[in-house]
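RECORD TYPE: inverse folding
INPUT: structure tokens
STRUCTURE:
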């Protein structure tokens, strides 16, 4: 299934587009912050980048330069009104960028994505149906870690057994959970700004999320840190780097409980 990185402010329009496209593509939401975007580009390795230009005056224009300079092999589809789009027309000259004028139906966005990716509609629908059957049988694991290397490592360890979603921060984790509820969360304890403790508190504060089992991942192996982790009563914890067989065995035990 092709991967789309959807950049933009989290609002009803972006949510609707995300929901529609997720029927046929792996869609990962991303903020308009250039540093976060570059991290997600390396982690997700998308086939297409889509940018919502709603509130264009707030968009960090360096993301356009970065995409055209270092990621010019990835097609980019922007969506905005004529006024919102006008600030970025200079990037559309070489064919990497294409703009759809809002208001635009989701079906038109879908057709534009197919065209940009060179995909036949009927083949995609057949592939989506087959992948949906496969994913239905797999449990979904959300891995939350600010370290891109750690995320890629965990994905490689788990993707043969589970459907794996990734998030680089607590805020992005909450967005991912809202989009599709995971069966279990692997959560880095030591993250900047919003650490594992704060993220767990946010998860437990939401009625429809509070029962999701959370396993902490921590790189600090001392008694005080371990006691602090256990005091939060997670479903489990692992010291980094986690051992694949032990981790999968523990995840299976928790999921089957």
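DESIGNED SEQUENCE:
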């Amino acid at each position: 299934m092709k991967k789309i990185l959807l950049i933009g402010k989290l609002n009803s329009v972006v949510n609707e587009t995300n929901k529609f496209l997720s029927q046929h593509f792996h869609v990962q939401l991303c903020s308009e912050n250039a540093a976060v975007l570059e991290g997600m580009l390396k982690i997700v390795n998308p086939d297409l980048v889509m940018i919502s230009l709603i509130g264009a005056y707030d968009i960090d224009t360096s993301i356009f330069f970065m995409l055209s300079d270092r990621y010019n092999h990835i097609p980019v589809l922007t969506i905005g009104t004529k006024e919102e789009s006008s600030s970025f027309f200079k990037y559309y000259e070489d064919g990497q960028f294409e703009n759809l004028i809002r208001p635009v139906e989701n079906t038109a966005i879908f057709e534009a994505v197919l065209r940009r990716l060179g995909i036949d509609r009927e083949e995609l629908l057949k592939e989506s149906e087959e992948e949906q059957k496969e994913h239905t049988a797999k449990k979904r694991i959300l891995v939350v870690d600010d370290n891109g290397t750690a995320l890629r490592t965990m994905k490689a360890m788990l993707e043969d057994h589970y459907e794996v979603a990734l998030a680089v921060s607590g805020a992005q984790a909450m967005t991912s959970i809202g989009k599709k509820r995971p069966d279990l969360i692997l959560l880095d304890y030591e993250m900047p700004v919003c650490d594992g403790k704060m993220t767990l508190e946010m998860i437990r504060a939401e009625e429809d999320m509070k029962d999701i089992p959370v396993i902490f991942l921590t790189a600090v192996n001392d008694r005080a840190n371990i006691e602090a982790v256990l005091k939060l009563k997670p479903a489990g914890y692992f010291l980094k780097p986690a051992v694949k067989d032990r981790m999968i065995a523990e995840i299976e035990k928790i999921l089957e409980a």
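NOTES: Strands lie at 3-7, 26-30, 48-52, 76-80, 97-101, 140-144, 163-167, 184-188, 214-218, 236-239.
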